[in-house]
What does this fold into?
Amino acid sequence: MNQKTFLAFIGPSVVMMVLFIALPLATVLKQSFYVTQPVYQTLEVETCTPTFTGQLCVKEIKTIPTIGDNGKMITQTSFVGFVNYQNVLELPRVIKAFANNSWRQFMVIDFWKALRFTLSFTLVTLPLVLSFGLIIALCINNVAKSIRGPVIFVSLLPMIITPVIGALSIRWLFIGDGILTSFLEWWLVRDISMFAQAWTIELMMMFYRVWHVAPFAAIVFYAGLQTVNQDTVESAIIDGASRWQKLRYVILPHLMPLIVFVTLIHLMDAYRVFEEVVGFSSQAHVISLQWLTYDFLTSDLMGNRSIGRASASSMLTMIGITLLLIPVLRGVWMIIRVSDYEGYKFNTPTNRTSFKLIFFSNILVYCGCFPNFLDYCYKCKASY
Amino acid sequence: MAAFPIFWITVISVKLPIDAFNSNPLNVIFGPVTLTQGKGLSFIDITVGLAIILFTAKLTTGWLGRMVNKYSPNGYLGFGWIIGSMAFGISFIVVFFAIMPSMLSVLNDYAGELGNNIIGFSTQHYSTVWFERDFINNFKNSLLVTTGVVTISLTFGTLAGYGLSRSGSNLAFWILIIALIFRALPHSVLVTGYLPFFINSAEILRPIFGDAAPTFMECLGQRSLYWLLLINPLQSGCCVHSSKVFHLNLMKLLEWMDAVIFKHLDESLCL
It folds into this structure.
């Protein structure tokens, strides 16, 4: 494809990405260094109230926002450097908490609390999503052809349902004397209130997320299972491979690119966890980074929004997700370089580099890129 | 396990709250309190309702497809499906929610023992949501966002996906990486970027519209969220639904498209 056609194809997307993502990002970066505040003035105000004997007047000095001609508060925007970041990170409190050796004090600071939850949420749900996705996919694959359609439909339901409703449906199983809570109470013979402490809420949020995303992983893996090379499977069986060995040495390596793909997507999606906080009303106990930004953006009673701090926390969130994705993206980058340098010659499954080659190039394929490159990989695999 | 929470939310939606949040699952299913208020289903209701649902399912999987194939003009099969399924859906709603209940109420009176209510069932929450809380507005918003997202994302995303997949250049690689990072952005980051524009839109648009310049945040209210629909397709559209038509067999492709469309539907309906 020549350069001109290529540009024509990606042009619309690129223009819209610049207009609706890159430009707002630039303004977020700019705003994170500015603070917009109402202009306050100090006035001496005399308030008089009528009494029986005459007037009772009180003079007070008040600080009030200046009101402009249009009846709105006058605001001014000033450059403040890294003050917004300081306000979000609250480093002095962090240092104090560490000086006191107190994890608890550290965890009451909003940003770090949100970061702790977001990271643990992302990293705990990831292996669960992958393993449950794989189990479901294997189950679907082994079910009789005649009922496979309905089984796929039912196992996809959690993915189709909207996140907030899904979260609510889990919440209502547990809230108050919800049936699952009463079941747990009966089983453990003790009183349980699932919404009274942070860790149980976190458990439910993670349970919800795994329930919601595992079908997505399952359908991707199921698609992958359709292309497992049957010759390889047969030869493995002839060589006396057990069921587990077949899974471990034939099917999993074949699915590895898809596992990486699901990992990538799940890292991105779980890092911006938000619906769970809303659905489980967990704001008092557990907050996520995206919820923190949203909270800064929400206007207070006077109609002020702390856009400066929201921008700072946005930038920090963005840096966080980029750091989290760097290992994967770096792998992609390396693969491209390697493929340029050595071609696709060393494509034996025993060769670690070639393994990586297939591993990462498939991400690109499922992300819509570099098909030819993958062709080679598959050809090599087949010829081997 | 996949279906249970959804099944359960369906069950509690037709019970009064005191039954819906009862700690005994059997009470939730049979709804004694709902029943004492005279709201319930008899054996006949359940049998006829299930029969109609099964019959409809059978029609949908067989007859509907044949009729659409037979009557849609050449080359307009997709259009025929839209018309056909809409007509089918509307007639189902009319039969199931209007004709059937009125006929069943007459039938129950004559049926004696079989006509007595055995399971608590109340549609009052549904009528509250639809008629008193203007659910139709929310529904319209969601439909608008969904249509926008699916249209824009499929058009632009497929174009870009095809372009990227047929080019092995450095530029393509970097665009992909940037698109991936954009996809990873939490939505609130972009809202932070849009918000000042929405708040100040009256000032920004004054040179064009004069004094009638709208403030998005005020006059459109929730609708300003429509702008978000432009984020969604770009974030996920460009990268996910690749044009790997040539590598995947048709079934897999369909699954992929389904997965992508479902993803968009659910993300946008969440608004």
About this structure: Chain B touches chain A through 84 residues (CB under 8 Å). The first helix of chain B runs from residue 4 to 13. Residues 116 and 256 of chain B are 48 Å apart (CA to CA).
